[in-house]
Amino acid sequence: MLAQTPAINPPKSAAEAPAAAAASKRRTAARRNRAAVWFLAPACAMTLIYVLYPIAYTIYLSFFNWDGMTRPQFVGLANYVELLHAPTFYTALRNNLAWLLAFLLAPPMGLAIALYLNQKVRGMRVVKALFFAPFVLSGVVVGLIFSWFYDPSFGLLSLLLGHGIPVLGDARYVTFGIIFAALWPQTAYCMILFLTGLTAINNDQIEAARMEGAKGWTMLRHVILPQLRPTTFMAFVVSIIGALRSFDLISVMSSGGPYESSTVLAYYAYDQAIKYYRQGYSAAIAVTLFAIMLVYIVYQLRRMLRSER
């Protein structure tokens, strides 16, 4: 008997080969997309549950009168109308503006310290650790340190001046005293951002600028700062957000006093919700603060995108 020869698949035509390759690429792309979706799903779920839902619920709650225990009562825009007629709201808004203007000093000071620390000098690591220390401390610890510093009876400030000044007990000084305390860790944070940015600078451009005779302010303005533009943008955005959501130092150092002279919008919202059980009114304050922050962030993002184009 003759052995049966196995069937041989006919060779694919020239028209079928590109189609098979395209189908294989589509299957590979589909697998990659599914993998990307599975990797992103936990982060998206966390963002939805812990960020987007609280924002939406806070906006919804701002139209109700609710004490946290009884049934909420719909009041429409009454919370916002009351907010616009409350003197404490304008005091908090003015203090937030003072925080905002003062925190604009943090990025330039952080950049100056970062330029000083970005040197290959013996013992510089110890100096970096000393400048980095304020960022590691919590806001409560910073508040306690400066509360002792400002104490008119035994504080270091009274020893330096020769007499005590009740910084935290005087409505004229309390806001600026707390802002000065907050600038300490904020400047350290900006310093860390700029130190990270300085490590990514193109050294070839710096050497070329040195060969052309650039140094000092000219080098900083035309060579270094343009390469630090993303870091500078991040430092200013973080500083502005930190100024608008300032809370912990105020809670530790003054509790919004004396006579609500040092309160800000974030602490005003907390005060109304926790002390007076006005959840809806507190939500209206939080929505107002969020709108102010959102306007600034959108403006800065559009400005950065326009400059990059």
TrEMBL record:
Domain called ABC transmembrane type-1: residue spans: 88-302
Keywords, comma-separated and alphabetical: Cell membrane, Membrane, Transmembrane, Transmembrane helix, Transport
UniProt topology in membrane: Multi-pass membrane protein
Pfam families hit by this protein: BPD_transp_1
InterPro entries in the record: ABC_transporter_permease, MalF_N, MetI-like, MetI-like_sf
Transmembrane segments: 35-60, 97-117, 129-150, 173-201, 222-244, 280-299
Main location: membrane
Compartments in which it is found: Cell membrane
Domain of life: Bacteria
Family of the protein in this entry: Belongs to the binding-protein-dependent transport system permease family.
Protein's UniProt name: Sugar ABC transporter permease
Top-level taxonomy: Bacteria, Pseudomonadati, Pseudomonadota, Betaproteobacteria, Burkholderiales
